[in-house]
Design goal:
The chain is an alpha+beta fold. The protein has three domains: about 130 residues, no CATH class; about 160 residues, Nucleotidyltransferase, domain 5, CATH 3.30.420; about 60 residues, OB fold (Dihydrolipoamide Acetyltransferase, E2P) (Beta Barrel), CATH 2.40.50. The chain contains 13 helices and 14 strands.
């Protein structure tokens, strides 16, 4: 099983546990109750298959995450491969469920499903062992996930942050007009704008920049509510949410009411801020950013009738005890982009057309890199320990001064 597959399985497992980890499940229920409820649902694995999990399995995953973080959700290679072992309750429950729901499913497909979702390792349990529990025929149907959509408002701050982007004004740069995009995050309970900035591109890197600033200042939300745009629905954002311990909730397609509050804030921003701008007064993005920041500070202090006479700022900080900030180290390591790159024969990897040098032991291998949004810090991830080792820009002049060991050739013993 390669690292990409292991990471996809870890994200799948985190997605199931996210309500418990982020504290968004029904607080009247016990943790054991969460596991029982979760075990009664059907989940689609990274391979596109439907499966059901036992409560003990979910409990084991949860405490692995709690004690050792996101990486602990990645499956590990078994050390007893090739040896026969008894089917445990987790495996038998999944087999019985599949037979109950799909009476004509063949043993070969059930066997493959158990391998794909990480329950068993190929060769650890034989197909003939599984064959005693099943009949033969194809899987025909999958469950549909219908979501209950209702108007809501959270009771406390940092329970839900809504995030979205909007087109802004045109800014003239070197004699050419460039479209500006505004990316913002707003707290659902208080309407407080926790993060906002202007960019020339509406992409997930800039979204993560806004999120990093917001989380650093105001702590992490339990839920991030986004639409289904490419900037918001990708592996980078999923990894980030897993590392900081929050849940991402995506709006159903064609349901703008799902993000009504932030849409209303953008409309107000355009009416009150953008409509009064003279773009000839701005020479660069930094000056426009300063103007926007000044407006947002004023907006956050404005009295809202929907907040019982409080401003967004007063409402937000009235529950300052709900702010759970992350440590500087957690912020630094969580908000890193992650990609795989192939190392050249001369120990170089390319990032955004820039060459970086890695240790010679990685020559001609595919490695995982994690790096900061501004590329000031770039690390190689050890595939066995997940430790981070920083790498630097390629410096050919320094390399020319390094003495290489010479290999002595001899004619044999005297």
């Amino acid at each position: 099983m390669n690292n990409k597959t292991r990471k996809e399985i870890a994200l799948f497992r985190y997605g199931i546990l996210a309500p418990l980890i982020s504290g968004t499940y029904d607080e009247d229920k016990s943790i054991k109750g969460f596991f029982r409820d979760a075990a009664g649902k059907v989940y689609t694995t990274p391979n596109g298959e439907d499966t059901k999990l036992s409560a003990p399995t979910l409990e084991r995953w949860y405490y692995n995450y709690k004690n050792n973080g996101f990486e602990a959700l990645m499956p590990v290679r078994r050390c007893d491969t090739g040896r026969s072992r008894k089917l445990d309750s987790d495996i038998t429950e999944q087999i019985k469920y599949l037979k109950q729901e799909y009476p004509r499913i063949p043993a070969t497909l059930i066997y493959q499903k158990l391998i794909n979702n990480g329950t068993i390792v190929k060769g650890d349990i034989s197909l003939s062992t599984i064959n005693g529990y099943v009949n033969q025929l194809k899987l025909e149907h999958k469950y549909s996930n219908n979501k209950d959509m209702r108007r809501y408002e959270r009771a406390h701050i940092n329970e839900v942050w809504c995030g979205d982007s909007s087109v802004g004004p045109y800014l003239k740069v070197e004699g050419k007009k460039k479209r500006v995009y505004i990316i913002a995050l707003i707290d659902d309970a208080s309407r407080y704008i926790t993060g906002i900035d202007v960019f020339f591109n509406d992409n997930f890197v800039n979204l993560m920049s806004v999120m990093k600033s917001a989380v650093t200042r105001f702590g992490k939300p339990k839920i991030l509510n986004f639409d289904n745009g490419a900037s918001y629905k990708n592996k980078q954002i999923e990894l980030l949410s897993a590392r900081i311990g929050t849940t991402i909730s995506y709006c159903a397609p064609y349901t703008p009411q799902s993000k009504a509050k932030i849409e209303r804030r953008f409309r107000t921003l355009k009416d009150q801020w953008m409509s009064q701008l003279n773009m000839n007064d701005f020479n660069n993005l930094g000056e426009l950013r300063t103007s926007l920041s000044s407006y947002v500070d004023s907006y956050n202090q404005h009295i809202h009738s929907s907040l019982n006479g409080l401003s967004a700022q007063d409402r937000f900080f009235s529950e300052s005890h709900m702010i759970k900030r992350l440590s500087d180290e957690q912020i630094e390591t969580s908000f890193l982009l992650e990609y795989e790159r192939r190392v050249s024969t001369d120990n170089v990897v390319m990032i955004d057309e820039t060459a970086y040098e890695v240790d010679y032991k990685y020559s001609k291998q595919k490695i995982t890199l994690r790096y900061s949004l501004d590329l000031s810090k770039i690390y190689v991830v050890d595939k066995n320990t997940d430790e981070l080792t920083e790498i630097k820009l390629l410096n050919k002049h320094d390399n020319s001064a390094i003495k290489r060991k010479k290999i002595k050739l001899t004619g044999g013993e005297d």
